[in-house]
Specification:
about 500 residues, alpha+beta, Rossmann fold, Chorismate Mutase Domain, subunit A, 3 domains, six-stranded mixed beta sheet, about 40% helix, about 20% strand
């Protein structure tokens, strides 16, 4: 096996991750990846004349174990004579305040903390310990979510932290985007097994985080269940996924170069609320660039959007090619493509404002929900995870600790269980109304859901009945009671990494 130290050097050189004299903040959790990274960079610091600064964030979730992690990192930094910043954030509280799943809140808070440390000391780079197995998991996750070429690149060895949107609410003080450092991943070409071997060879004793075994998290389920199953079909599946990322990255870079050339030729006007293409010039583009420019316009207008599915892009492209004047195609997050006399406009479908930061369903087709199982939401970084609970108590049921969780009577769920958006005539009998039903459309008005997003609110449907207006109300017939034999938990989680 190639030495990790050499792999790190090769990755740094191949991607230009570090420059002589760089100040580098190293995010250290105490686990094997971050400890291996810090040790390898410490060995390299003289060759690169770089200055290292250790940063550790206590997420406030595992009590004594979290405190012990922080003490461990402080001890390592002291032993290796490195400056260190250790801080604590109450991520569960922040997740609740911002209506985020814990994983997504932890990601944003962690990157915001690292950015703050870098800004304070004037660091050029932030180094994190994502490894080659993390990359394989990310590519597979994006594939299951229906990502295009951009998503199939997985994580990049070098990327501007300014690309990680939505950090602002978690920054202790504002940082202009131009002052945000780059994020580097020197271990991205190094398998997890090699990282663990390196720790053993150098007598490094990393901390163990038991939450990494919890398969209620989507990534952990991929890691511990799906990837091992795929390895029975092809033992090299992880390497294949990494090769896919490399190929997608090279193809995407070429596409971006050609797209930017086309963009300057076809764009008549670019505003905050709309982008206007010259119709004749856009229609003369190759198919791949027609799709790419539609995607790019959508991303520029909806910067928090993770991905745009092929179905939306292709439908919009076909209407832009042959639709008569005034014809519209629906795009994600309240956008629409409209055909003009000599133009094609992508902009607000209505006076919508930005979409809420919650799981929305951008699909006209119902999504089957296996129980237990996991369903990625199209064009989103949300997944719905269904779990049958072996143990439960009524306090947990009546006071869920997660804003996008519902506990339902599993035996009362008729087949098939699906996730879909509302339909004309849908009715719902909410818990507490003694079996009386209301129109779903009226319920959404009463719940003050903005009109622009009501067609995208996910509904959990069992058989022909709406069992859960997701994030809002549970139906009477599937409510958990003392006599309930089996409980199904449905939880929306973010999958960002």
């Amino acid at each position: 096996m190639t030495d990790v130290y050499q792999r790190v050097q090769d990755t740094i050189q191949a991607h230009g991750l570090l420059n002589p004299g760089d100040q580098v903040v190293v995010g250290v959790s105490g686990g094997p990846d971050s400890l291996c990274l810090l040790h390898a960079l410490k060995r390299l610091r003289r060759a690169y004349r770089m200055h290292l600064h250790v940063a550790h964030l206590n997420h406030g979730t595992r009590g004594r174990a979290s405190h012990a992690d922080a003490e461990f990192v402080e001890g390592i930094a002291a032993d290796w004579k490195l400056p260190v910043t250790v801080e604590k954030r109450d991520v569960p509280i922040l997740a609740e305040e911002h209506g985020l799943a814990f994983e997504e809140a932890a990601r944003r808070v962690r990157y915001a903390f690292l950015a703050q440390v870098a800004n304070t000391i004037g660091a050029d780079k932030i180094a994190v310990g994502h490894n080659a197995d993390d990359q394989a998991e990310t590519v597979l996750m994006h594939f299951l979510r229906g990502s295009g070429l951009a998503g199939l690149r997985g994580m990049l060895p070098l990327s501007p932290l300014a690309d990680y949107r939505l950090l602002e609410p978690f920054l202790e003080s504002p940082i202009p985007s131009r002052q945000l450092p780059a994020l580097v991943r020197p271990l991205l070409d190094t398998p997890r097994a090699a990282v663990e071997a390196y720790c053993a060879d150098h007598d490094l004793k990393p901390r163990f985080d038991r939450s990494n075994l919890d398969t209620t998290y989507f990534r952990n389920r991929l890691r511990h269940e799906l990837l091992p199953e795929l390895e029975t079909y092809n033992p090299n599946i992880r390497e294949i996924l990494r090769h896919t990322a490399a190929v997608a990255t090279a193809d995407y870079d070429l596409m971006v170069e050609q797209r930017e050339e086309a963009w300057s030729d076809i764009v008549r006007e670019e505003r905050a609320d709309a982008i206007v293409f010259d119709q004749t010039r856009w229609r003369s583009l190759p198919v791949a660039l027609q799709r790419a420019t539609v995607r790019q316009a959508t991303y520029r207008l909806r910067q928090s959007l993770r991905d745009v599915t092929f179905v939306h892009v292709e439908n919009a492209r076909q209407i832009a090619l042959g639709g008569e004047t005034g014809k519209q195609a629906t795009l994600p997050m309240g956008l629409a493509l409209t055909v003009g006399y000599e133009s094609i406009t992508i902009g607000e479908a209505a006076e919508t404002g930005p979409p809420p930061d919650e799981p929305l369903l951008w699909s006209d087709e119902p999504l089957p929900v296996p129980v237990p199982g996991t369903v990625p939401l199209p064009e989103s970084d949300w997944v719905l995870e269904a779990t049958i609970l072996e143990q439960w108590d009524m306090k947990e049921i009546t006071s869920p600790d997660h804003p996008w969780t519902a506990y339902l009577d599993a035996d009362a769920l008729a087949e098939p269980v699906q996730l879909r958006t509302r339909r004309p005539g849908d009715r719902f009998a909410p818990h507490g109304m003694e079996g009386h039903s209301v129109k779903v459309s009226e319920l959404m008005i009463n719940l003050k859901i903005p009109a622009a997003w009501r067609n995208n609110v996910p509904l959990l449907v069992a058989g022909s009945e709406v069992a859960w207006v997701c994030g809002r109300r549970v139906a009477e017939d599937v409510t958990v009671e003392a006599k309930t034999r089996q409980v199904a938990r449905f939880r929306f989680e973010r999958t960002s990494y």
